[in-house]
Amino acid sequence: MAVTSKNIPAPDLVPVRRALISVSDKTGLAEFAARLAAGGIELVSTGGTAAAIAAAGLAVTDISDVTGFPEIMDGRVKTLHPLVHGGLLAIRDDPQHTAAMEAHDIRPFDLVVINLYPFEEVRNAGSDYATTVENVDIGGPAMVRAAAKNHAYVAVLTEPADYGRVADALAGNDNCLPYRLRQELAAKAFARTAAYDAAISGWFAETLELDDPDWRAFGGRLGEAMRYGENPHQKAGFYRTGEKRAGVATARQVQGKQLSYNNLNDTDAAFELVGEFDPAESAAVAIIKHANPCGVARAATLSQAYGKALACDPVSAFGGIVALNRILDAEAAAEIVKTFTEVIIAPGADADACALIAEKKNLRLLLTDGLPDPRAAGLMVKSVAGGLLVQSRDDAVVEDLDLKAVTKRAPDARELADLKFAFKVAKHVKSNAIVYARDGATVGIGAGQMSRVDSARIAARKAEDAAAAAGAAEPLTRGAVVASDAFFPFADGLLTAVEAGATAVIQPGGSMRDEEVIAAADAHGIAMVFTGTRHFRH
User: Which residues in the chain show pLDDT less than 70?
Assistant: First the structure.
């Protein structure tokens, strides 16, 4: 049996006779208010909301006529009053509460319709400090939380999307709302105010540059309920935070079947990687499988870049994700659809490319209208047992690093360009990461191994397999460069790269055995560059 906080049985059906409405977003307001009024429900409202209801030809009581006190301080103080909150919080079946209502002439509210000041929108628009603070709602969350706490008797709506559902429930229950619906609306209301406060506290931490605030809060809105998570027995949902970053959360899905949890995870990895490459300098393509790149390349055209990326590991590319840094054209689309692909993500696509993609009904096409900025600040969150690990986004970009040649031979211009390219890719490969690159394309990638030397061996072996598949005389690691996401703890990983044919190496440095590794490079005539910055990715 459902009970109130004072162990009083909660009624199943509660009649709605009086509604308090105060909304920032007035979408659907007139229609909803009209349905309430048609049911004989008294409407009480505030400021602009009351004016909008009156403009629709409906009778409405201004909140100041209820409280006997005018709105003051630019509307900051209008609903924070006992005649409002008493009407929201009173337990109707508690004799002490009802006596207090009678003694102080407090009338109950049965329905509360509130949506909050648009703080998230103002924040994301980059508004100034004063404007952002002014859009912190106070009275709204207070009323929402009060109504939600007293859901045994009060129903609370926090967005226009629920208007139709509530109006239909009223019509089907003789102007009453069932307990289960009131519970669901209360749960949603508390989640809404939690996400709202998370946005506010997050903005303060960002604005004041507080790296480690004592309390962290994160919030998001359900974008899509997923069929399952990483595996069919796991439940999952995709929640959007409101961050205006080009990527999977802001993309338009032009076609294809529903995206899965793994699709979204892999597509995010692919697009973040390809965002490292300036489209004004070259076309770039990344092919991702299980959140790791199996081929990345840049070239004059997307079609050429895709061909080079595919050649790195054509076997793993099957069923992968393809990300592009330029608007998808028909030439590139025609090449991509030759291999089974799960998702294509790009800043845009021309009509001819869309027509070609449309022939593959299940192929998802996501368009983002932009690229993620690899230098942009942001937070990464990972759950662990009993807590959250929070860190800043890895916004280090190789062009901004102080590269230092540490060997007798410095890399030549061609090698240096490939070293920078390979280090960009290594940033997005699961650790331990080893990336061989040549002529602006990956030619071997080793990812996620417990030993760095094993990653180097796997990358070389993959290059051999790709050469065999292409009928080449030797793997493209011959004359390639190699990038490591972290330092070589021993010379063995470097020597494996030398055996594979690498002529230059880029790595962070910082090992106790750096001198040993440098000596091994010098002994084989290898050029090596230290970046001073590590790119672990777990």
Answer: 1-5
